[in-house]
Amino acid sequence: MKMNAEFERVIKYFDEDGDGKVSPTEIRNKVVMMGGCGGGEFLFKEFEMAVEELDSDGDGLLSLEDFVELMEGAGKDEKLRDLREAFEMYHDKEMCGFITPKSLKIMLGKLGEFKSLEECRLMINHFDLNGDGLLCFEEFRTMMMQ
């Protein structure tokens, strides 16, 4: 709930008329006040398009829920990007995008955790959803989310 309180403060900062929602005009006014862009018609259209894309109820305004959705979605994208980078470190270059027991053993060794090939096989088998003895990105993601 602490996060929602932070989001509420942001919404209140932009919400000039106190209706609990933020319009493209209110966003533009605050950005201009903070010394951002000139505030011309082009800038207003950009804010209008952004609000339209994020507006969940079609009223042309951003609510707290819309803002939370935006922030949580950005967090998910970042987590997915981080997982993709981690997967790239582990996967076997020769196997074209899969983590093999051998590549897992090598990477764990680099991290100071020494496992036998059999132990790595068992670790992979635990999350290997299709039974091919390899981890694809989706299986790796499932493993990392637990």
UniProtKB/TrEMBL annotation:
Keywords: Calcium, Metal-binding, Repeat. CDD domains: EFh. The keyword Protease does not apply. Residues 2-37, 42-77, 115-146 form the EF-hand domain. The keyword Phosphoprotein does not apply. It holds the Pfam family EF-hand_7. One of its GO terms (molecular function) is calcium ion binding. SUPFAM superfamilies: EF-hand. InterPro entries: EF-hand-dom_pair (IPR011992), EF_Hand_1_Ca_BS (IPR018247), EF_hand_dom (IPR002048), EF_hand_pair_protein_CML-like (IPR039647). This is EF-hand domain-containing protein. It comes from Lotus japonicus (Lotus corniculatus var. japonicus). The lineage of its organism: Eukaryota, Viridiplantae, Streptophyta, Embryophyta, Tracheophyta.
